[in-house]
Amino acid sequence: MRLLAKTFRGQILTAGSSAYESARVPYNLNFSAVRPLAVVRPVDAADVATVVKWSAKEHVPIVARSGGHSYGGYSTTHGVVVDLGLLSHVTLSGNKAVIGPGARLGNVYATLGAHGLAVPAGTCPSVGVGGHILGGGFGLASRAWGLLCDNMLGAQVVTADGSVLNVDAKHHSDLYWACRGGGGGNFGIATRFVTRTHRITSGSYFVASYPWSQVDDVVAGFLAWAPTTSDAVGALCRLAAGGAPTVQVFGQYVGPQSELQSVLAGLKPAASHLVIGTSSWLDLVARWAGCLGHSLPGCATPVDVAFVGSSSYIGRVPSASQLTLFREAIEERGSQSGALLIDAYGGAINRVAPTTTAFPHRRALASVQYFAAGGSSARAWVSQARAQLAPSMTGEAYVNYIDPQLPNALHAYYGANLPRLVKVKQAYDPHNLFHFAQSVH
């Protein structure tokens, strides 16, 4: 580390330093036992290049961490963690956003929202942009505006040899393609993104609640409606355990409440309780972030938690017998934390061909996220629920809900795009400097 310290201008935190302990702990506490050799905080791309070259020379494992939310704990290592938290700028260049990988979504939304602008991204305000956009970047505005990676116009990437490359459709276009859905931690360390923005100041929302006895019909009705309704709708169906099981369909509409009311007529069965309203854009973001009434930057500070997650994709509406398995999976979890979160695809997401970007899941009706707070019990339930529902799924999975126990993981994440991703990997990281248990290789 002394050799690195001679040329590295940012912080180097090692065991024994006062800030090391808090800096090393990942968002998912199930991986908190991992103790890195060091956590380094670069101040710019040149600093990142310095630590990459040092890592390669010294044969020390290296991983990047934007927000640290990797479901599989892949943003920590026994080697060196490159914490990109200081690269958190969010600026505008005309109607384009220039965003650092360490910027957290709450801050991105707040900064752009002050100018009446937005990007389509996820709901968790403490997620870092880096891994999110590199793995696709799904959010409730994605049916309207595409995935966040679809809106990426360019990126700056430090590759395994320490080169700082500016990539876009005309420069290093193969690496640019891989950065749009090929997953974080595979091809280099991204230090900047340039994205499109979308003008918006307000929208509308709805929350539809149903008795649990209707859950089979609700899931079927949601899947028949949400992926093919107006692109302005972003919606999900949530089945949750933890006491009496619950089922809701909720989401937003990029437009006025009067139009949403008309669109909702197609959602069957009719809700037993429907809340519908109009909101500013930033209040919509705060609503889904669970921090309505609080500042988005304040909510962007992560609160570490132990959890397990995984995912599947739905290609067609499940049969009646398959729908009962959704209900049974939640009922088997009983009073413990557990949820199936079914996110509608379609719209702008599915108008992109599966090979246009590295993100291949362009023909799905919806994704299913399996999520449970806790440790071994949560792991067992997530794996069991995923296996239980497998007959009604496509066999694909979303890399941003990365699962260390997923069988045939690389094919599930990347499908037919995997061979091309392997070629990009061989071109830019031939010695596999950037690697983890489920990395492209």
Structure description:
This protein is an alpha+beta fold. The protein has 3 domains: 2-83, Uridine Diphospho-n-acetylenolpyruvylglucosamine Reductase, domain 2 (2-Layer Sandwich), CATH 3.30.43; 90-199, Uridine Diphospho-n-acetylenolpyruvylglucosamine Reductase, domain 3, CATH 3.30.465.10; 202-415, Vanillyl-alcohol Oxidase, Chain A, domain 3 (3-Layer(aba) Sandwich). The chain is built from 15 helices and 18 strands. The strands form 4 sheets. The protein has a 7-stranded antiparallel beta sheet. A hairpin with a 2-residue loop joins strand 5 (90-93) and strand 6. Helix 8 packs across helix 12 and helix 12 packs antiparallel against helix 13 (376-389). It is globular. It starts with a helix and ends in a 13-residue tail after the last helix.
Query: Which architecture of the largest domain would the CATH scheme give at its second level?
Result: 3-Layer(aba) Sandwich
Q: Spatial order of the strands in the main sheet? A: 15-12-14-13-17-18-16
**Percentage of residues in helical conformation:** 25-40%
The proportion of residues in beta strands is: 15-25%
Q: In the CATH scheme, what's the topology name of the largest domain?
A: Vanillyl-alcohol Oxidase, Chain A, domain 3
The CATH class name of the largest domain reads Alpha Beta
In round numbers, the mean pLDDT is 97
The strand count comes to: 18
Rg over CA atoms: 21 Å
Q: Shape, please? A: globular
Poorly predicted runs are none
Major sheet summary line: 7 strands, antiparallel
Given the structure, what is the number of helices?
15
